[in-house]
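Q: My collaborator sent me two sequences in one message, no labels, and asked for predicted structures for both. Can we handle them in order? The first one she listed is below.
A: Yes, handling them in the order given. First sequence, followed by its structure tokens:
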Amino acid sequence: MSTKTRCPGRISALARQLTAILLIGLVAILTLAAYRALAQDNGNEDFTVYLHPNDVQLVRVYPREKGGKILEETIPSDAEFEVVVEAKAGAAIHGSGGKYSIQIVVRDLTDFTVVHRDNLEGNLAYEPWDEPVFWHAFPVPAQGPAKEYHIYEVLASLQVGVRNPNVTFTKSPLFIIW
């Protein structure tokens, strides 16, 4: 009568292979998470995005006090504020003078409404986007006391080109009207 026994060497080899696969997957996930954090950094003044010469990218979008210089997470309900959009274009596409369109949508996540929309259109390499690195501040009116303690978010999109356009999106960190 033959008895089947498990080979301990075989099990440990399988365990080592599964461990290696899990570690590779974990490293891949962590690398992707770090890349996404880089691609959407909304608070670092030294933020750098490296682009292909034929690519454009919305770097970040954030609210700030009117005329301010930094991201604000709290906006007074009785004050106008600005939504800043930062973008970058590769040298080749920027030099082409292609048509672009930037849209922003300010959303109130508390009552599920759109409180403001705006857009900017033009051609790359001309005012106001005459340099490959670009930013624009969209004015947003005061929200009033009815919007106190409402949580907001800004969505932004950039479209470059007419046929088969290059399109990129980003969103702001959440902020509150107080």
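Q: And the one she listed second?
A: Here it is, processed independently of the first:
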Amino acid sequence: MLTTAHQLQHCPECGAALPAATEMAQRCAECGFSYAADSVVFRPARPWRIYLLFAAALAILPGLLSFLETTLARLERPTPLQTLFAAAAIILLVWCGRRLRVLLEPNRYVAITPSGVAARTPRITARLGWHEMREITLRGSIPLIYRHANEPPVLLEWVFDPGEVDLFRAELQNVSRRWAQQVIPWRDAQFRSDLD
């Protein structure tokens, strides 16, 4: 979900109230988050379909586990199919728990600011200056920022809604032209072998 600087009332990093954006670069008084009138912030929309899918999976899971428990209690030795079914139920439970934790993570965002790109995902919190970014490519449909000097790339996952990556690319090019007098190269390769 795209938020323009004119709609930005609170800092995406710390939640403090922000003065209205102007053409000049400004900073959050609490954490130093940089923003201006052309800044944009991407946040994930609340995917209610995914929440409903997880709720359905979690509602079915106790019944599956109960069925497995009664079935296994009647047998001295479970069949390979029953063992496989039990393992699948456990894997489903773990997968649902991890994905739900990610979806409920507050304050996930990617911001294009006068000083570069700021991001908070479930795995990273990063502020990348314009001079630090070498190029951007895609890993599947997720932007991946490569840095200069052998530092690990930054994967911007679990933030963009479908169709927003192209908008992120266009906004990144526009803002980087103004503030860094350069355009960060964007490679259309879908996968690179030097990923971590």
